[in-house]
């Protein structure tokens, strides 16, 4: 493949034949339309094409969820491949950045070939590129600033897919340019949707919703990434159920900063390391007692109510609890959290964990969390640790989010059906809005205030 014996370049007709072989659909579609026009008449063919377009438009308007999941990525990929990254545009961009080789004998410029384009979301494209012999990923890394400007995009990340094939993950635009306001607190418990609490917005302009009942939520992000906005938004959505006693908040707060405001509405609150361990031990005891009660009643799951409440364990700074403190306490906590992660869903015992460093050494129970969020992180490897294998390759560029207060709350989640990364932004909950939450719960509290106790301050 890399040998260069002849001084003659390959014929243009052979290049054209090879192109047709690589892109049969782009040749077949116009051919089918032409054949239909000749055979059925152009009016009939126009009606068929128009009906197809009208059908897609109706689908787009009538059922956005399935259209965005099934049709939009394919249509967007095709448009970007044959308009944004088409032939000469792609070739000229790479030549301008010196990302080509020259045939030693013929002098022919050999530009890396664009093999495939995938556009899983409106703001991120993944370009699969086949390199020529003598080229390497490092050459593209050295030219990333120039290539970013040449393609007129926000940023580009690189991944090696296999020998001589690399992927350029291209972020075309930033969908979030404004801070998202905190979600409104429902006034009645009946208005709370435990399966889809609103915590922000997604890159499609819709609400970003997450389930709480029967789920464990894991959020990773560096300092200042906006992790605390997620549990704050969740708790605002749960406010009337906390007030009515249908949700009990168990809060481990080693940092003793933002969440200290929530101590008055917590069923249990702890800050010191041993106190947090005691709180989690009590949480596990409560879970096991609920399991026994459900077993005796022949039930498989709870319906949240003041009698059988949903218990939510919020774990701030999990690294401080599991890895950075007393090793003996950390070992016990890992064992207890593994029990909660593997057994707590049916009994209504959910976890919401926050961490800066999502490695297995820091959070060995990471894989037991059913829903995960990756905000700005400091390493490309952290993205796949949080969101799963090849998440970054599919467009989750969480390590490329700028370390800027204006980007707080921006991150990625995996869409459950398609397994495609989706860019999201958590709503920003101010201190005033946290105070509003506490006041709302305390003033309308229908349980016994004595139940609210601090394990350790």
From TrEMBL:
It holds the Pfam family FtsK_SpoIIIE. InterPro entries: FtsK/SpoIIIE/SftA, FtsK_dom, P-loop_NTPase. It comes from the Bacteria. GO terms for molecular function: ATP binding; DNA binding. Coiled coil: none annotated. Residues 189-384 form the FtsK domain. ATP binds at residues 221-228. The keyword ATP-binding applies. Keywords: ATP-binding, Nucleotide-binding. PANTHER family: DNA TRANSLOCASE FTSK, SPORULATION PROTEIN RELATED. This is DNA segregation ATPase, FtsK/SpoIIIE family. The lineage of its organism: Bacteria, Bacillati, Actinomycetota, Actinomycetes, Pseudonocardiales.
